[in-house]
Amino acid sequence: MAENLSDQELVRRQKMQDLIDKGIKPFGHAYKRTHHSAELKNLYGNNTKEELEEMQINASVAGRIMSKRRMGKIGFMHLQDKEGQIQIVVNKATVGEDVYEIFKASDIGDIIGIEGQVVKTDSGELSVRANTYTHLSKALRPLPEKFHGLTDKEERFRRRYVDLIMNEDARRIAFTRPKIIRAIQRYFDNKGLVEVETPVLNPILGGANARPFVTHHNTLDIDLYLRIATELSLKRLIVGGMEGVYEIGRLFRNEGMDTMHNPEFTTIEFYVAYSDMAGMMDMAEGLFEYVATEVLGTTDITYQGKQISLKGPFKRVTMCDAIKEKCGEDFKKVTSDEEAIAIAEKHGIELAAHERTYGHVIEKFFDKYVEETLIQPTFVYSYPIEISPLAFKNEEDQRFTDRFELFIDGHEYGNAFTELNDPIDQKERFLNQLAEKDKGNEEATEMDQDYVEALEYGMPPTGGMGIGIDRFVMLLTDADTIREVLLFPTMKPIKSGDNNDVKRVVVPATKEEVAVDFSDVEIEPLFEDAVDFETFSKSDFRVVKVKECEAVPKSKKLLRFVLDDGTGTDRIILSGIHAYYEPEELVGKTCVAITNLPPRKMMGIDSCGMLISAVHHEGEEESLHLLMVDPHIPAGAKLY
User: Residue 511 pLDDT > 50, yes or no?
Assistant: First the structure.
């Protein structure tokens, strides 16, 4: 199939052919360089022009051309490598006419090597004055425009290679992440723990409450789960006598995506024999303090405009006390499921069938009233037993467990237990999880008989904890979404158009009309009450463009839209349509909204208007279609 190339792409391909005609390979071989850009600046940035001329320092650098200008027989360009940019000076008198012509024909994005003398220009910019110019790789596609770059977030994440070229902050995060992981490894190595690897494919679902991905092993003819946690394998190693282990590994959960969640993500889980929940608190405090100091040089950070201290000790509070502090309900005095359910109903909290228990009600209250208020690092402990199937029962009140979670800026960063090492109790917990699965809890764990047998050989008292590394990286790099800290986040595939283009406009082909069967459709009856025209005319229906869309944390229904309504100020509207659409597929769509409704708080967020959807029933199923209109209609256009 013929390629639909732009004029720029056609010109670049001709330049590629011109290189071939001159005997130059457009996609060359290895190049030996002596310095990176930052190294040259560190070594010689403080020297004067005269000192550098006297020192006669030669260097070989390589990188991508990011800017280029000519002044007669002298040319200037900036080469970008992994550490930054360095200016190159190309003098026709030095490199010769043939090479200067190659420089003149080069494009932004081409990759070249330069050998020459380190100098400073008259303007004082550290540079390399080229003696030898080596073409290394031809860029056949133009980079995004310099000042706007790649600003569409969906495109940035989809074309991460372009994002890394154009976006200094993306490079900063990409290079900071491995520094954070190395610091985590050093911390645990210094504590005497051993780094291990455990299976990604598991025959049994366990270690966490989450929906899994399922695959099939052809040779064994069995279905396997991609792991949702590393916990049970690591605790088997504690049984085996390794005493202190940790694993940094990829986990996979077949659940929703939002600013804090991606279907595949990285965690560290660590387990220490002869420790407990309190020991894990101390270890977590030490970890956050150590890593922040190693990577950033400080424990005082700014995250999304908030000042946060990662210096221990962190605040410690029980889940029930935290709830009582925020809404006045004291669940320690509640004695039955029925009493807890009545309190939930009083507060308008909806409960699924498997959530109509004392422990699940407490969790619901915590989610509603407490979690998002915890800005500074806080350990919340004493979790109900119903939601903690692998944790040790609290000796003072066996309705609770010796479990805590670490919260920072309203989000969970870690989960820890005094590990349950009683095999009889553990088997009973597994059976209770199976009962919850029968009631519709898709995230309940399965029975792991082999793990129970491992405990029957005896596991020492143990503390264990899991920490989300992606969230930790977000915190230390001030990233507002998990997709910023994953080089290749999960994205919805492009269904149509040329998905090899960055922001190329594609005109969709005209499709034949497909007959739709409406025979089983039911619609709501039309309103009998008439509305006078004057009242109706006060409703301001406007065309809006979806700039951003994301799932609202802790809500299974709500999507948060950032909309262009033509005013120049972003409009935020929340809509309960997540069951019908994933947020990525709505970015860039053109929709209709009522814009003059009073703001309404939803999950603590002001929703300023209402997006228009069409709803009907087919049999027992409700169907919903967000009203989308011709993208040629501009934002702000009024509907009559």
Answer: no
**Is the model more confident about 7 or about 414?**
414
- For CA atoms 475, 476, 477, 478, give the dihedral sign: positive
CA–CA dist 10, 26 (Å, integer): 15
- Cβ(56)–Cβ(62) below 8 Å: no
Six token digits for residue 206: 């366990």
Q: Which residue has the tokens 């012509």?
A: 101
Of 621, 380, 130, residue with least CA distance to 388 = 380
Residue range 12-27: average pLDDT?
Answer: 96
Q: What is the mean pLDDT of the chain?
A: 91
Q: What are phi and psi of 137, to 5 degrees?
A: -155, 130
What is the model's pLDDT at position 495?
63
Q: How far apart are CA 626 and CA 578, in angstroms?
A: 11
Predicted confidence band at 510 (pLDDT cuts at 50, 70, 90)?
A: very low
- Phi, psi torsion values for 145, nearest 5 degrees: -55, 140
Report d(CA 59, CA 36) in Å as an integer. 9
265, 282 contact by CB (below 8 A): no
More confident residue, 229 or 439: 229
Residue type for position 536: F
| Per-residue pLDDT, 531 | 80
Alpha-carbon distance of 487 to 392, in angstroms, equals 37
CB < 8 Å & 24+ apart, contacts of 596-603: 596/538, 596/539, 596/540, 602/552, 602/558, 602/574, 603/552, 603/553, 603/554, 603/555, 603/558, 603/574
Residue 515: its pLDDT value, please?
A: 55
Residues 37 and 85 sit within 8 Å (Cβ to Cβ): yes
Per-residue model confidence (pLDDT) at position 516: 59
b/e sequence 413-437, b meaning 16+ C-beta within 10 Å: bbbbbbbbbebeebbebbeebeebb
Give me the amino acid identity at 167. Answer: N
- CB 556, CB 261: distance < 8 Å: no
Residue with the larger pLDDT of the pair 578 and 500: 578
* Tokens standing for residue 127: 């540079």
Q: What whole-number distance in Å separates Cα of residue 29 and Cα of residue 328?
A: 70
Quick one: three-class SS letters along 573-614? EEECCCCCCCHHHHCCCEEEEECCCCCEEECCEEECCEECEE
pTM across the whole model: 0.77
The pair phi, psi for residue 533, each rounded to 5°, is: -60, -35
Task: Say how many C-beta atoms besides its own lie within 10 A of residue 310's C-beta.
Answer: 24
Nearest to 144 by CA among 105, 114, 125, 170: 170
pLDDT (mean) for 112-138: 96
Q: What share of the chain is helix, strand, coil (3-state, %, to 5)?
A: 30, 30, 40
